[in-house]
Amino acid sequence: MPCRPSENRAMMSRHHVIVTGGGLLSLIGCTTDTLGPATEVLLDKTDPTIPVGDTVRVRATPVDADDRVIPGKPATWEVADGSVASVDDGGLVQGLSMGSTEVSATADCITGSTTAVVTTPAPGG
């Protein structure tokens, strides 16, 4: 099935609040921006090294054309070589055998990736 960008748009609100004497709040303005589809998927780990049997969590952050984070946008995870590592729906990468493999997260047909390097098991592991 071909990848199709999401038709849904996330909303982001900004409220401008002034705190006055006596703890009173005054709402002075509110704007709502519509976030566009993801134009980049940023990953928080660059080429993680994982001993066989261990895990590393990689987090994906989809951003729009204005570099604004798109909250709640799910990513689909996959690894290029499932004999070297596996990844779950939440980005938890497990080293299975020595080698390297690309780990990818995709949102709105845009993919961010990194290379996981799986090494010998940790001593005592």
Describe this structure in words.
It is a single chain. The chain has 125 residues and is mainly β. The N and C termini lie far apart (41 Å). The protein has no helices and eleven strands. About 18% of the residues have low confidence. The chain has a four-stranded mixed β-sheet, with no helix packed on it. A three-stranded antiparallel β-sheet has the order 5-9-8, with no helix packed on it. The relative contact order is 0.24. The radius of gyration is 20 Å and the shape is elongated. The protein has a domain of 83 residues: Immunoglobulin-like.
Helix percent reads under 10%
What number is the mean pLDDT? 82
Kindly estimate the percentage of residues that lie in beta strands according to DSSP: over 45%
| Low-pLDDT segments | 7-20, 24-32
The computed structural class is mainly beta
CATH architecture of the domain at 37-119, by name, is Sandwich
CATH top-level class of the domain at 37-119: Mainly Beta
Helix count, DSSP H or I runs of 4 or more residues: 0
CATH topology of the domain at 37-119: Immunoglobulin-like
Distance between the termini: 41 Å
For the biggest sheet, the summary is: 4 strands, mixed
H/E series: EEEEEEEEEEE
Radius of gyration from the CA trace? 20 Å
What is the approximate shape? elongated
Strand arrangement within the widest β-sheet reads 4-11-10-7
Number of E-state strands: 11
